[in-house]
Every structure is written in structure tokens, then in C-alpha cells.
Amino acid sequence: MHLIALLIGLVIERFATRFFHWRRMRWLETMIDGGFRQAERLGNWPAIIPVIVLAVLLVLPVAAIMFSLGETLQGFTYLILAVFVLLFSIGPKDIGEEVDDYCRALESEDEEQIHRAAKAIIEGDVPTDARERIARVEEAVCVQANNRLFAVVFWFVVLGAVMGYIGPLAAWSYRVTDLIRRRAVFNAARNEEAESNCERIRDAAELVHGLLAWVPARLTALGYATAGHADDAIAALRAPTENRDASLSENSEHLLARVGVAALALQDRPDESIKERGIRGARAANMLVFRLLLIFAVIIAAMTLYGLTR
């Protein structure tokens, strides 16, 4: 049942994504900030403890609903709840929609719109050099696809196979740790005067999220090699380039960016403008993500059929 819920959720998310802007859940930021304030009062505690407690508190209401209502209507309620939780777990923004916005901005040649659209994809500083920006956007698409989609699917499937109810909760737990990490990074950048407290909470939030993202990131990188140019991607996958000074999350992101761009295997064309190169690269990266999603969907469908015939 949970695999059927996953297929339904992926179809709805893919074709009706523009209707789900409300799933960005900005209202949770107030709750997360409140948790951070409580964590700052526990200065003698390891920061990872309040971060985990905050994540558990945000997951508990969803768990209570799933376990109390999931068995009603012969499991049909579970199907609806699982799809609903999955739609909130994926995202919070659709990478394909953001790529379309970025390409439209490039076509308009409006530097302010280009910068805004690129920043939404990169989720960080945008290079001023046009070619560096193009490269960063292509890398970011490959990274964000795992963070927003493939890692959620991974935890939904893996723990859902153990127990159906756990799949949606695992997907939501991953999204919660990502929301906490994003907010912690934002607060650390904004509150430089409270450097010590904000930084230790940020580091703890990145560690928790990095642990959950480690396995999915490597499976997604392998998937890029399957969905794209295999030879270059596998060579990039094997390259021993992990930085000891980088965090767990950063190493996973570097791997995804390196392998994803290698799987694209894009070559510059002599008669191509910067604008055309940027559009081609962004759309190629988005198409790589879509091909991998189709591969995932086929595998999930096969697992569903096998499960129904056992």
C-alpha cells in the first residue's frame, strides 16, 4: 500500500506542483526558532540533543495521526494520509519550476531576475561571473534534486518496507531535519553577534541532516551515472576528493555536484552565446533529474507488482 501511495504522490507532485506553494510551511519557522531559543538556554548540553528533541517534537503530531487513523476504512485512510504526508515532505520548492523561472530570466536578459532565480536554485551566494554562475546552477540542480526529492523517496521506501506506517514518518522526519538545518544556517548568517550559540546549533543541525542524507546522496549519484553519461559519471564517482575539513553534508553535496555535472557531459559550442549555454545547461540538468525520477518510478512500480503477487 505504501508503494502505491508513493506512486500517487509522485504523480501528483510532478503534474500539480504549482498548486502546492503552501507546503513551504513558513509557519513552522516560528516553532523552530522557539526551539532554538530553548536550545540556547542549554549552553552546557551538546547542541545535537536539543536539535534531535526539536525534530522529534515536530514529527510526533504526524505520527499520532498516522497511527490513530491509519487502520480506518480498511487502510484507505492510510493511503490518503501517506500521500498527504509525502506531498508535504517533498520540496518545499519544485526544482523543475525553479529551472523554468531561471531560463525565462535568462531569456529576458534581466540581471536582477537572473540573480534572483539563480539564488533560489543555489540557495547561497550567486557568482558574479556568468560562466561560474552557469556551472553553479547546474551543480545546484543535481544537489537540490536529492535534498528535495530523492532522499525523501529513499526513506519512504526503505523504512516503509519494514513497516508501512514508518515510511511516511521517515520521509517527514527527513524534511523536518532539512527545515531545521535551513533555519539554523539562516540564523547563524543573520545573528553574527551571537556567533557561538548559533554556530553550534547550525553545526548540530547540519550533522543530523547530513547523517540522514549520506546514503541517499550516494545512491542518487549512482543514479545519475545510470540516467546520464555513465563513463564520465562513474569516473567522477570514483574520484577520491572528499575534504576532511568539510562537513558530512558538504561532502555529500560535492559528490552530487561532481557526479551530476559529469553525467551531463556538456560541451561548449563555438556558436553558442552565454545565455543559450545557461539555458541548455539548466534544462539538461533538470532532464537528468527527470530521467532518474522515471527510473525510480519504474523500480517502485515493479516492487509494487511484486508485493501484490507475493
What key attributes describe this structure?
310 residues, mainly alpha, 12 helices
Write structural notes for this entry.
- Helix 4 packs parallel to helix 8, helix 7 packs across helix 9 and helix 9 runs antiparallel to helix 10.
- With 310 residues, the protein is mainly alpha-helical.
- It has twelve helices and no strands.
- It is globular and about 60 Å long.
- The chain has one domain.
Number of domains: 1
What does the average pLDDT come to?
Answer: 84
Categorize the overall geometry.
Answer: globular
| Low-pLDDT regions | none
State the distance separating the first and last CA atoms. 13 Å
Cα-atom radius of gyration: 20 Å
Structural class estimated from helices and strands = mainly alpha
* Number of beta strands: 0
Strand proportion: under 5%
Helix content: over 70%
What's the order of the H and E elements?
HHHHHHHHHHHH
How many individual helices?
12
Largest sheet: none
Summarize the structure.
The chain is an all-alpha fold. It is built from twelve helices and no strands.
Task: Reconstruct the topology from this structure.
Elements lengths: L1 H14 L11 H15 L6 H22 L6 H14 L5 H14 L2 H12 L7 H33 L3 H25 L4 H33 L2 H9 L9 H17 L9 H36 L1
